[in-house]
UniProtKB/TrEMBL annotation:
<protein>
    <submittedName>
        <fullName>Uncharacterized protein</fullName>
    </submittedName>
</protein>
Length: 128
């Protein structure tokens, strides 16, 4: 399983890309959207999510910081092709550049790691 993450400044863009993905072969079971203010314990949940996903502590804190003030769309892809399609969609819909020093044209991040159900960042409302 490959986890693809996009962080958005605009909640509407996060919702639009989620709808786009659902209309293009992805299932609601594999897409999570977490918007700023969804959870009362969001600070701890977002930190735990990125710490679980990213081995580099400094980078995990950086991603968590960005995620706390934005909307996070996570796609749990079953293949490299699916992950690339998700990353392309997240980028096309305006995922913010999380690595300003990185020369990569991709703003979303692909991480080859499964996210346990209790760590996933599911929003207050289901994606349908």
């Amino acid at each position: 399983m490959i986890t693809v993450i996009g962080i958005f400044d605009d909640v509407n863009l996060a919702e639009e890309v989620s709808s786009y993905l659902l209309g293009n072969g992805f299932t609601s079971e594999n897409i999570d959207i977490h918007t700023h203010g969804d959870q009362t314990d969001e600070h701890d949940r977002i930190g735990a999510f990125f710490t679980n996903l990213i081995d580099d502590e400094k980078q995990a804190r950086h991603f968590a910081s960005l995620g706390r003030s934005g909307s996070i769309v996570t796609v749990h892809a079953n293949s490299t092709r699916e992950a690339q399609e998700a990353a392309d969609a997240l980028n096309n819909y305006g995922a913010i550049d999380v690595n300003a020093s990185d020369d990569s044209p991709s703003h979303s991040q692909m991480i080859e790691r499964i996210v346990a159900d209790d760590i996933r960042l599911r929003g207050a409302y289901p994606i349908s």
